[in-house]
UniProtKB/TrEMBL annotation:
GO terms for cellular component: extracellular space. It comes from the Eukaryota. It comes from Bombus terrestris. Keywords: Carboxypeptidase, Glycoprotein, Hydrolase, Metal-binding, Protease, Signal, Zinc. Its cofactor is Zn(2+). Residues 1-20 form the signal peptide. The gene is LOC100650514. InterPro entries: CarboxyPept-like_regulatory, CARBOXYPEPT_ZN_1, CARBOXYPEPT_ZN_2, Peptidase_M14, Peptidase_M14_domain. It holds the Pfam family Peptidase_M14. The keyword Mitochondrion does not apply. This is Carboxypeptidase M isoform X2. The keyword Transmembrane helix does not apply.
């Protein structure tokens, strides 16, 4: 559906009548000037807001100038037909580096939250111009493929207004849908009609095994982590109770990595007296306020990708004169966060002949979130130092448990060999020694198997009737104030 952007060069001479020849020569001259003029001008980007055409021009210019470090592709189109551009920045931009993780940033999911959109353009410029001279950036790009979607909601951005710190103008897509309430939800049924921007992201993450992700927003200053939603009843939903996921320790760590490397987020100061402060600049999403259909929960539950939400500015669309300040506040944090993809455990699942096993199910015991290996048999799991047990299953193979230790200094690497199961005709394939591989889910089938424990996460029936209406009204009120 999507691939690199190629610029087609017309070569050769056309010997027709003189007028036609002159016309063609003029077109060729314009084409070559457009292509190679980018090498004559200094490569830079101003601290100003860039509309869709300006953003697209910058991305194309970057892809031409840094062809060995970047690849530009579109994952789909917005309601109004604008491309959802993604730029890969890596020393291997066009091909997955076997054994090395893919990570991503997604910005401007709410069109009027504009800071993240501009920060992504500056991050691209910083990465490509630092490669080869900055050892840390060089290492990061040599060992990671970074995918950057600067604007998931280009239609909303085009109708947003600079200087508007609050409100909802431009927040939604061109059909009036909140894209961060438009994804499948683990806890409650999401009846919102799926939008083209959401469908594009869902297909995108189904095809690439992303290990780590950041969703960039505005309207607060905090790093928020899963779960965003809760199974609790209406009146329990707004009592500031966290909704704890199986990897709560890792998500808190990832959030703290961003917060502590940020210029001021770690202080946890509220944006206004009417808003809460956040200890260490982080929060559980549901403890802040619950929402249904959020992107970070979808990434984690459906795709095994650990995503947090980064609220980067108290003002949603601050004056352009503030952008350089926000870049300096976030520059180190944006880079250090992505490097966390190299923490934990990684390896390959192979058969007895050394061949990779695709779609093997991987789960860390007591962290009941399963995810699948890639076509190369690769797996990654971000974990903090400690002892763990990996549970590995694959269709037609005997399951296997592997104990391992994670240390602070570097990721733990190993291969898991699975052996084919010998079965007699009529044998029950669902027995304890044989994994049937019964995965009928959409996309790459990363499945969450846990159910919340009693206490702060007690499941209850879906809200309905007047209580559902009250809940929806409250959510609409909250949405206009927060990201």
């Amino acid at each position: 559906m999507y691939g690199p952007i190629f610029f087609v060069t017309i070569l050769g001479a056309f010997h027709e009548i003189a007028a036609a020849s002159q016309h063609i020569n003029k077109d060729l001259t314009n084409h070559y000037n457009a292509r190679f003029h980018v090498y004559e001008e200094p490569y830079s980007i101003d601290f100003t807001y860039h509309n869709y055409e300006q953003m697209s021009r910058f991305l194309r210019t970057t892809s031409l100038r840094f062809q060995n470090l970047t690849a530009l592709y579109s994952i789909g189109k917005s309601v109004k037909g604008r491309d959802l551009w993604v730029m890969v920045v890596s020393s291997s931009p066009y091909e997955h580096m076997i054994g090395k993780p893919d990570v991503k940033y997604v910005a401007n999911i709410h069109g009027n939250e504009a800071v993240g959109r501009e920060l992504m353009l500056h991050l691209i410029r910083f990465l490509v111009t630092s490669y080869g001279s900055d050892p840390y950036i060089t290492w990061l790009l040599d060992n990671t493929r970074i995918h950057i979607l600067p604007s998931m909601n280009p239609d909303g951005f085009e109708v947003s207004k600079e200087g508007y710190c609050e409100g909802g103008q431009g927040r939604y897509n061109a059909r009036g849908f909140d894209l961060n309430r438009n994804f499948p939800d683990y806890f409650k049924q999401n009846n919102k009609k799926s939008q083209p921007e959401t469908e594009a992201v869902k297909e995108w993450v189904s095809k690439i095994q992303f290990v780590l992700s950041g969703s960039l927003h505005g309207g607060a200053l905090v790093a928020s982590y899963p779960f965003d939603n809760t199974p609790n009843s209406l009146f329990q939903s707004y009592t500031s109770a966290p909704s704890i996921c199986p990897d709560d320790d890792v998500f808190q760590h990832l959030s703290l990595v961003y917060s502590r490397n940020h210029g001021s987020m770690y202080q946890g100061l509220p944006c206004s007296p009417s808003q809460p402060g956040f200890k260490n600049g982080i929060t559980n999403g549901a403890q802040w306020y619950p929402l249904t259909g959020g992107m970070q929960d979808f990434n984690y539950v459906w795709n095994g990708c650990m995503e947090i939400t980064l609220e980067l500015s108290c003002c949603k669309y601050p004056p352009a004169s503030d952008l350089q300040f926000y870049w300096e506040e976030n520059r180190v944090a944006l880079i250090k966060f992505l490097a966390e993809a190299h923490r934990g455990v990684r390896g390959f699942v192979i058969d007895e002949n050394g061949n990779p096993i695709e779609r093997a199910s991987i789960k860390v015991k007591s962290r009941d979130v399963s995810f699948l290996t890639t076509k190369y048999g690769e797996f990654w799991r971000i974990l903090l130092p400690g002892m763990y047990k990996l549970e590995v299953y694959a269709n037609g193979y005997l399951p296997r448990d592997v104990e391992f230790r994670v240390v602070e200094q570097h990721p733990t690497s190993f291969n898991v060999t699975l052996y084919r199961a010998s079965r007699h005709p009529g044998e029950d394939e669902t027995g304890s020694n044989f994994y049937n591989g019964n995965r009928d889910h959409i996309n790459r089938d990363h499945v969450i198997h846990f159910r919340p424990h009693s206490g702060t996460n007690t499941a209850s029936e879906t809200n309905s009737g007047i209580f559902s209406s009250i809940s929806n009204g409250f959510n609409s009120f909250v949405n206009n104030w927060f990201g």
